[in-house]
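input
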Amino acid sequence: MGAKYVSGIGTRRFFGWRQVDDPYSLEERGWVEDVGSTGSYYPLPRWLVYMCMGGWNEPIRGWTGGLYEKHCYCRSAHHRDGWNGVVLDSEPLYYDEFADGGRYRFRSVDPMISRFGLRGVAVRAPFPLTVDLNLFQYAACSVGELAWTPYADLRNGSCSKRMLDLMNTFPHKPGFFVYKGYLYAWINRMLQAGREPHVAMHCALEPYTELELFRAYRVYYEQLQREIPAPCMGDIVWPDQCDPRFPLENDPRAAHYGMWVYSGGLSYGGKTS
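output
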């Protein structure tokens, strides 16, 4: 433990700086922040992110009928060994009076998810899924509902029965989409954040979210390569985080994932056992 300094005005106090070992730190787990990414935009169009993570089968359009072509707002973005980990958020100004007659830009098919309900945590590998840059595919069986269910039916998009079964093998049931040759696996964890333990920065990749997404990514990737017509045949290198046994007990990296290392017992929404 290092030193810590507390400053404050009246009864309001906060940590001015801190020098401690944080086992949940992104940097301790090897993630490097993409400079200038926080509060900026990630190169995914809003219409794509809002459609996939909102549960729609058609893009949400503005009052003129056009798509939200601008890039999605990025709360944080990091990379590690070529992998991208990004937190995609609703607009900084959540209400757009000029969009679609004054409707909120992000809308979900689930009424439990409010206008603040998009915080999509996504990962992307450094290698593409397909050589077909025009292929667009997506599917989700959960868009962030609080109600836990052992098996969720397809919410939006389309996929094989095998892919649907794979999504249901994970506690948070990550969704996926394929865009410009790359596969993205994601979890909308805005409302789930209040149910899960708060470790590290709640607007970044927590240890349990990271591992679930890495493991889902590999099984989704390998299954989709069997299904799509033009799979990429280049080199594929899977990091240890994609292995469900990671981290082993004697692995020094285990300390940086804390006590919430995913072992199949994570809570999902109201499920705590």
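quick obs: The first strand starts at residue 4 and ends at 9.
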